[in-house]
Write a structure and sequence with these properties.
This protein has helices at residues 23-32, 89-102, 122-135, 150-155, 195-203, 219-233; strands at residues 6-8, 18-20, 40-44, 49-58, 63-73, 80-84, 106-111, 143-144, 148-149, 162-166, 172-173, 183-187, 207-211. With 240 residues, it is of the alpha/beta class. The chain folds into two domains: 6-73, Beta Barrel (Ribosomal Protein L25, Chain P); 80-238, Alpha/beta knot. The two termini are 32 Å apart. The structure holds S-adenosyl-L-homocysteine.
Length: 240
């Protein structure tokens, strides 16, 4: 049996609501899946959770759906941020996709001295996050924050949030220094952190320098490994 399609929409959902879907979703449902009136859907709004819905009219140019009962409320993501220096677009897309699957509250691109890929496409990144969330049953999307330079980020760092600085040159194993939420994981670009950045991070009051093991990892792998380790090791809280 075919899986019931799950789609994020921009409108706040409630029972009885009727809405027309935007062109990309219309194309997917009417032309790719060839769904007809009566077909079941699941709609998500990233605000209230997941809702049952049905197609009431399906044309190539317009698909209309009617919202039924709520299936689940919106989940609470762990209070973990991913701060990652942008890398090659396809690898950065993979990073945000995996972070969405693993569950983070916020993704913030950090511009460091050795960051080479400065032109970000937030719309594309968001599309990858939405697709990952739709496929993996998420009811919450991470917030995608505007990029910040590392010194600016550190200067406005919130007092209560631990900053896990993944350093390829060493540090305590994350298993021995895994802080509870609220926390953030910082991953450098392909070229790593500069000596000045490392010094600035080591001196920062919230930072903990951690190692992800003796092997050098690519930035996207390091992000996924650090998120998975934190998820497994951090003391649990609601949504953890
Ligand atoms: N300086 C590097 C590569 C940087 S890897 C070089 O020699 O080319 C990109 C980022 O992934 C690093 O800045 C770090 O945040 C993270 N990373 C990679 N391997 C790691 C490890 N073993 N421990 C901690 N962080 C690591």
């Amino acid at each position: 049996m075919r899986q019931i399609p799950r789609l994020f929409v921009d409108t706040q959902l409630h029972s009885g609501l009727q809405l027309s879907l935007p062109p990309a979703q219309t194309h997917y449902l009417a032309t790719v899946l060839r769904l007809v009136p009566g077909a079941e859907l699941r709609l998500l709004d990233n605000r209230t959770g997941e809702w049952a819905a049905r197609i009431v009219a399906a044309g190539r140019r317009q698909v209309e759906v009617s919202v039924g009962a709520q299936i689940r409320p919106r989940e609470t993501a762990p209070d973990l941020w991913l701060l990652a220096a942008p890398i090659r677009p396809e690898r950065f897309q993979l990073t945000v996709e995996k972070a969405t699957e693993l569950g983070v509250a916020l993704i913030l691109p950090v511009l460091t001295e050795r960051t080479q890929h400065l032109r970000l496409r937030p719309d594309k990144l968001l599309a990858h996050m939405v697709e990952a969330a739709e496929q993996c049953g998420r009811t919450a999307l991470p917030d995608l924050a505007p990029a910040l330079k590392l010194p600016a980020l550190l200067a406005q760092w919130p007092d209560d949030r631990a900053l896990i600085f993944a350093d390829e040159e060493g540090g305590l194993p994350l298993a021995e220094a895994c802080p509870p939420p609220p926390a953030a994981i910082l991953i450098g670009p392909e070229g790593g952190f500069s000596p000045a950045e490392r010094a600035m991070l080591v001196a920062h009051r919230a930072a903990r320098r951690v190692s992800l093991g003796p092997r050098l990892l690519r930035a996207d792998t390091a992000a996924v490994a650090a998120l998975a380790l934190w998820q497994a090791l951090a003391p649990r809280t609601a949504g953890g």
